[in-house]
TrEMBL record:
<dbReference type="InterPro" id="IPR038619">
    <property type="entry name" value="MraZ_sf"/>
</dbReference>
<dbReference type="InterPro" id="IPR035642">
    <property type="entry name" value="MraZ_N"/>
</dbReference>
<keyword id="KW-0804">Transcription</keyword>
<comment type="subunit">
    <text>Forms oligomers.</text>
</comment>
<dbReference type="InterPro" id="IPR020603">
    <property type="entry name" value="MraZ_dom"/>
</dbReference>
<feature type="domain" description="SpoVT-AbrB">
    <location>
        <begin position="76"/>
        <end position="119"/>
    </location>
</feature>
<protein>
    <recommendedName>
        <fullName>Transcriptional regulator MraZ</fullName>
    </recommendedName>
</protein>
<dbReference type="InterPro" id="IPR035644">
    <property type="entry name" value="MraZ_C"/>
</dbReference>
<dbReference type="InterPro" id="IPR003444">
    <property type="entry name" value="MraZ"/>
</dbReference>
<keyword id="KW-0238">DNA-binding</keyword>
<keyword id="KW-0677">Repeat</keyword>
<dbReference type="InterPro" id="IPR007159">
    <property type="entry name" value="SpoVT-AbrB_dom"/>
</dbReference>
<dbReference type="InterPro" id="IPR037914">
    <property type="entry name" value="SpoVT-AbrB_sf"/>
</dbReference>
<keyword id="KW-0805">Transcription regulation</keyword>
<feature type="domain" description="SpoVT-AbrB">
    <location>
        <begin position="5"/>
        <end position="47"/>
    </location>
</feature>
<keyword id="KW-0963">Cytoplasm</keyword>
<comment type="similarity">
    <text>Belongs to the MraZ family.</text>
</comment>
Amino acid sequence: MFLGTHTPRLDEKGRIFLPAKFRDELAEGLVVTRGQDRCLAIWPLSDFVEQTQKLRNAPSSSKQVRDYQRMLASGASDETLDKQGRLTIPAPLRAYAGLDKDVVVVGAINRVEVWDAAAWQTYSEAQETEFADMNDDMFPGL
């Protein structure tokens, strides 16, 4: 499970240090791809395979399914962490998420998200009120 908010810096080669507590779960390989809301999503390879297996079984006759499959897969890159725990983020994905030097790495339970620091600040401030207003109607039994 991925939890917490971390603020590594993106280096000149497009690498970030992932938090040490995330590295074990990502050691066998990972997939970094476009996330929703203009962030990047990092999945352990096995979880990404499981997720995409569900998409393979979805009806390709649905435009929404095709669109989601294309957006997810076309931006995906399978990667490994280097010995220091750094992830190199491909240039097209850095551009998609607007990543420069200041980034935020967010644990999102089943995945890791990487955000531009200013975009994360704007997003999290906007979500604070909605988060406070969420209730059992949205998530029954939670």
